Amino acid sequence: MSLNQINSNMATENGGSNSDVLKTCLVLGGRGFIGRVLVERLLKLGNWVVRVADYTESPQLEPSELLLSDAFSSARASYFHVDVRNKPQIIKAMEGVSVVFYTESMASFPRDFFSYYTIIVQGAKNVIKACRECKVKHLIYNSSADVVFDGSRNICNVDESLPYPNQFENMVTDLKSQAEALVLFANKVDGLLTCALRPCNVFGPRDNQLMPSLINMANSSWAKFIIGSSENMLDFTYVDNVAHAHICAEESLSSQMVSASGKVFFITNLEPMKVRDFVPLVLESFGYQRYLTSF
């Protein structure tokens, strides 16, 4: 799947630094894969007070997270235990916030329809209602490029006008599309501006999905084979670029010149690659050899 992308340089990464007024934001899913990188980048900008919210009772910081540790100590960051299925918890974390970055994580929840629905769809409803009650100005939702893919045909050189398919490749993508639609529908209601970002195949440090699956494949006997023509291409997106796109989206929502309000944006590295080229590059960095056989 190759998608026509929006350049995430809608605004410079240090946009807003010409203002001395600190803005307060909430990063829902702030201990997840994308959330952690986004929190770090917001703190580096220097003009944000960051509230980190996630489902764990307390954050277990890694030794490399010195920036976040210092921010907790200096009150430039704070942590909230939030389950998006619990609206009062969301409101407690959201009071006094002007911007919400919504990057929910499903890592430790049961893999059944009810859990997925209550977290993804009902969670989105709760977040939107909390934003309206707390007078939040901006809500940026981390969606997925998969919401336009039905699994039956390739998608190449399209833009964000491509509609949702009549059927989805899997249950999670279906539910993500519903959550995305709810967020977009909430735009300009009670003063809330919203937008959705659709990253594609995100990878990078602390990745707990794409990289582990590739390593598991490399450890199996199937790593020796390429099945099919091996000409299929995908868009892959480095996690730092996804975090940067969230910040750019917020800058655009704040801008009186150009606005992302009510819109969706595909986010990629702007370099679609053949899977047969991408996978060996990743595995070789972990010390694995290239594939031996193709058929």
UniProtKB/TrEMBL annotation:
Q: 3-beta hydroxysteroid dehydrogenase/isomerase domain: from which residue to which, for each copy?
A: 26-290
**Gene Ontology MF annotations:** oxidoreductase activity, acting on the CH-OH group of donors, NAD or NADP as acceptor
Q: Which GO terms describe its biological process?
A: steroid biosynthetic process
- Top-level taxon of the source organism: Eukaryota
**InterPro entries, sorted:** 3Beta_OHSteriod_DH/Estase, NAD(P)-bd_dom_sf, NAD(P)_dehydrat-like
Entry keywords, A to Z: NADP, Oxidoreductase
- Pfam families given for it? 3Beta_HSD (PF01073)
> Sorted alphabetically, which Gene3D superfamilies does this protein's record hold?
NAD(P)-binding Rossmann-like Domain
* The keyword Transcription appears for this protein: no
Keyword rRNA-binding attributed: no
Q: PANTHER family this protein is in?
A: 3BETA-HYDROXYSTEROID-DEHYDROGENASE_DECARBOXYLASE ISOFORM 3 (PTHR10366:SF639), NAD DEPENDENT EPIMERASE/DEHYDRATASE (PTHR10366)
Descriptive protein name:
3beta-hydroxysteroid-dehydrogenase decarboxylase isoform X1
Q: Name its species.
A: Olea europaea subsp. europaea
